[in-house]
Design brief:
With 210 residues, the chain is an alpha+beta fold. It contains 5 helices and 9 strands, in the order E-H-H-H-E-E-E-E-E-H-E-H-E-E. The protein has a domain of 58 residues. The longest helix has 31 residues.
Amino acid sequence: MSGHDDFASEPVAGLPARPPLGEEILWQGRPSSFALARDAYKMTWFAGYFVALAIWRASIIGDTVGEGLLVTLPYLAIGLAFCAMVYLVAMIQARSTLYTLTTARVAMRIGAALTVTLNIPFKQVANANLVLRKDGTGSIALETMGDTTISYLVCWPHVRPWHMGKTHPMLRCIPDAKRVAKLLADAAQTRLNQPEVTLARTGLTLSAAE
């Protein structure tokens, strides 16, 4: 896995370098802004909190319906402004993110302020877990093998929530997640089924397609 600080001069969008000969891009995508605001930034939870707070205040202060509505307005306005800011942050995060699935790896260009690119070869992935929402958006968490460590804080929200000991990078809140998960599973299976032929004298490893 590697880091890349500046994607302004990317030879291929979302990748720190051009794919090697024989590696093909199968899919690229970004998080859904609304899904990211809802699932990662808990926008709907905050909206519910301000609505509940407004109703509670109206119930103990407003003697009439008109007074009750008048009491709720400041709380609802603050809640609306707060949720708008949360959505803006999620939208900026989504637009700065680009996930790439190739025939050999998953690449994640992430981060709005501090931008990095994670390259995760299929051979380093032990398992992939799909969390699917009713609207078709979902997240795919990758359980990696080896000693490579990934910073939870640097990569958030593109990590599996609360898995801090062993961080699981995550394609977060992507549209049509079921189809992407199927693409990933098929590509990984095809890649891992390719036998390796090692040339002892040079140490060169070649992949021979079936």
